[in-house]
Input
Amino acid sequence: MMEIIFLGCGGGMPTPERSLASMMINYEGRKILIDCGEGTQVSMKMVGRGFKTIDIICITHIHGDHIIGLPGLLSTIGNSGKVDPLIIIGPKGIAEAVKSLMYIVPYLPYELRVIENYSGSIDFGDKYSIKELGVLFKPMNIQISSIELEHSSPCFGYSFYIKRNPKFNIEKAIENNVPKNIWNKLQIGEEIIIDNKLYTKEMVLGTEREGLKISYITDTRPILDINNFVYNSDLFVCEGTYGKEEDIDKAIRNKHMTFKEAASIAANSNVKKLILTHFSPALKNPEDYIDNAKAVFNESYLAKDRLIETLKFN
Output
C-alpha cells in the first residue's frame, strides 16, 4: 500500500486554507517529497508523518512557492536524527538555489546531494548505489523519470513507477536445483555463489507483475509530450491553477493550465484518476468549477491540504 499525501495545494502565495505546493509519497516506511513550498512542515506535523525517512526531494522548478520551505525542512530532517544521505533532484539551477538557501542552515548531520538537470530516469530499485553520486541507498524499488515542461523558468514534471516484485515460485526453484537455505536471500534480490555456481533471483521468482505509476505535472502549458509521459498512470496529479475556462488567456500568458486543459490530458492519456492541485490564490472555491474537468474526464477530483490518497497493487 502507498500513500500520496497532499501537503500544500496552493500556488503563488499561501492562503488561510492552503499552504504552498508540496506532495509526499509514503511507501514501505520511506518518503519522497515533491516540491517544498511554505507550510510543508506544518502539514507533515498535522498528518503525523515523520521527517527522518525522507530520502528524496524532487523539485519541479525554482520559484519561491515551490522551494521556499526547503531550509526549514532540511533543518528539521537533521533534528529528527537522520544520518543517511538525502538526494535533491531538480532542473537547471537547483544546485545553486540549494547552495544559497543553505546559508540559513549551514550545518546538517547528513550528506546532501543534488542531481541537476537530469534527463531520463533514475532507478532506485535493484541497484544499491547511484554511481555518479557515490551515495549508498537502501533499494526503494522505484524508478523516477522526468520531463521538461513549458513554464517561465526551467521546470520538470515527474513520474514515479513503483515496481512490484514477482512472487516466489517454488516449482521454479526446485527445477533449478536451488538450495532451500538460500531461497529467502534470492527472493530479496541477493546473488549467491556456491561451489562456483551463481544463483540469482530469476531462478526462484515468477513473472513480472504490474506496478503502480504516479505522475506529477505542474506549472506548465499542456504540451503534447505530457500525454505520453503520464500515459497509463494510476494517479495523475496535475496543476489546475484556473478553474474558469474564461481564464484561458491568463493561463496562456502565465504558462499554467485550466481545469479543462488538465482534464483533457487525462482523457487522452489512459490514466485512471486525475487529482487537480496548485490552485491560484484568487480561486477561493475550486469545487465550484470541478464540473469543467468532469465534463471532459469524469474521474477528476480536487486536492486539498492534508488529503491522503491510498493506492494499492491490483
Observations:
- Residues 170-202 form one domain.
- The two ends are 10 Å apart (CA to CA).
- The longest strand covers residues 156-164.
- Residues 59 and 89 are 6 Å apart (CA to CA).
